[in-house]
Design brief:
The protein is mainly α. It is built from 7 helices and 3 strands. Strands 1-2-3 form a 3-stranded mixed beta sheet. A hairpin with a 4-residue loop joins strand 1 and strand 2. Helix 1 runs antiparallel to helix 2 and helix 5 packs antiparallel against helix 7. The chain is elongated, with a radius of gyration of 25 Å. The N and C termini lie far apart (75 Å).
Length: 177
């Protein structure tokens, strides 16, 4: 199980617990639990900020490609790389099956298109491997660039027509009976 999956599961578990408290009807317990989560997030965020400040961005370089570290730094707005660099890192970690067309920072929408090589290798129909690649990309973006709130995929470019080579037919030697 990957560290990113563990982080995602931990977040889901926190949501489950908070939802359970909210459905219990005990408003005071629910409010206290939400406050506890906020305080712990602030506390750990302050600790990470101090580590980043004292180490500097250069010292963090070896761990920036780790999903868990990247997601924690991004969550607390401490990642030293800009969002476009982190999007590139996410695309690379997902096998780079898509071409980046643009990112709108105001809306969080990332526009992509399948790479020509990836599009040519498929049959043109949706498949479970396409779904898996999409999930891998979404997971990578969640870790490295949580600013991306939606991914819009443009159609794959049409493959170039096959090259038809026409040449003169080689002369065959004359056979003598």
């Amino acid at each position: 199980m990957s560290a990113a999956l563990d982080a995602r599961q931990a977040g889901a578990r926190v949501d489950e617990v908070l939802d359970g408290l909210a459905s219990s009807g005990d408003r005071a317990a629910c409010a206290a639990a939400e406050e506890l989560v906020r305080v712990l997030m602030d506390f750990y965020g302050a600790g990470l900020a101090r580590i980043v400040e004292r180490l500097g961005a250069q010292a963090l370089a070896p761990v920036l490609d780790d999903d868990l570290v990247a997601s924690l730094l991004s969550l607390h707005d401490l990642h030293p790389e800009d969002v476009r660099t982190r999007i590139g890192r996410a695309l690379g970690s997902a096998g780079d099956p898509v071409e980046l067309l643009g990112f709108d920072e105001a809306t969080g929408v990332l526009r992509v298109r399948p790479r020509a090589a990836a599009a040519a290798s498929g049959c043109g129909c949706g498949s479970s491997s396409d779904d898996a690649a999409g999930q891998t990309l979404e997971d990578a973006l969640a870790c490295f660039a949580p600013e991306v709130t939606a991914v819009e995929a443009e159609p794959a470019p049409a493959p170039p027509p096959p090259l038809l080579q026409i040449s003169t037919r080689p002369q065959s030697p004359v056979r003598v009976p």
